Amino acid sequence: MTNTTHIYLDHSATSAIRPEVLEGMMPWLTSQFGNPSSVYRAGREARHALESSRARIATLLGVGPAEIIFTSGGSESNGTVIASHTNPMRPGVITSSIEHEATLEPVRQHDIHTIIKPDSSGRVTKGMLSSLGEERLKNTGLASFMLVNNELGSINPIVELSDFLHEHGIMIHTDAAQAVRTIDLVPIAKNADYLSMSGHKFGAPKGSGILMVKVGTPYVPLIRGGGQEQDRRAGTENVAAAVGLAVGLELAIAERESLVAQCLAFREMLVNGLTNELGDSLRINSSLNDSSPHILNVAIVNSDGVGLDGEMLILGLDIEGLAASAGSACSSGTIKTSHVLDGIGVASDVARGALRLSMGPQTTSKEINHAVEIVSRVAKRMM
């Protein structure tokens, strides 16, 4: 089957491996395939590549190499952090209602947990934490909040939240999967106790991830049975993926300033273009302030104010050559009303017509203009 998609606006779901990343990985996928736990030369070379990548990543985040653990991605990292919270004196866990399910589901497994409703832009504030009351805070040992929401792009004030939580003896984890390309992670890593990233969100391979765990912070291995990763994650290390993560992170940081400027301009083009074409049928779900500019979430409604059929909208765009998303990619294939949009108060009959457009380094202004034409044309046909 020929793939007719030529405009890709679903970078929040995944991005292609960068050529530089693949080039760095190739030796470790082919000729230099040694097991990093082996003591002969091929093993030592693999170990050097693994630890060199760990050190590069640590330097980029402003942390120590011992604080970096390689994982299979954001879901494993998030689940490991939540499962590591076993403090019987402070068993409670706090999160928000619009987190990724990879955080929400593990949190729900804790007998004592608090799920905060964010504000209308999708942000958690210090005031919301304070309003929980001293008794609830004293019974809580861990909080987990996304840095950038994967469906809206809203940015949580993690440094401010960290300060408040630490004053109350509560550790904080942040899922930074959507933030790598647009936000300086150094101050975030400095203040958070745990930080997780997923490689395929910033040009590294799928099935690769980074978990930062501050020295002295509680940690319980999710995968046991070997001494790898300093006894923190069993299994032969994926050297190629580690190299790819280091290269991908270096590229993302080097390009961050220019990408943010580019995405700000492109987001404005999308908002203005779609508003001109669709008028009152367009609802902007993403906040255009305090949000990462690479994500724009909108809803398209008919004359009765009811959202268009989300599945048919996505398929219609696909036929026209535009790849976009109705929400989180991890629930794609079973398009349903987004728990994120519900969490910020978007009515379910509107949310069914939600569309997420997310941009990356390869996105061009020509593609954005063409995307406006395609979305408008398909939406008008469905009204």
Sheet of most strands: 7 strands, mixed
Helix % is 40-55%
What is the 3D shape?
globular
Uncertain runs: none
**Beta-strand content:** 5-15%
What is the chain-wise order of helices and strands?
Answer: EHHEHEHEHHEHEHEEHHEEHEHHEH
CATH architecture of the largest domain: 3-Layer(aba) Sandwich
What is the helix tally?
Answer: 14
CATH class of the largest domain: Alpha Beta
Question: Mean of the pLDDT scores?
Answer: 95
Structural class: alpha/beta
Strand order of the largest sheet: 2-8-7-6-5-3-4
Q: What is the strand tally?
A: 12
Tally of structural domains: 2
C-alpha Rg, in Å?
A: 21 Å
Q: CATH homologous superfamily name of the largest domain?
A: Type I PLP-dependent aspartate aminotransferase-like (Major domain)
The rounded distance between the terminal residues' Cα atoms is: 30 Å
Could you tell me the CATH topology label of the largest domain: Aspartate Aminotransferase, domain 2
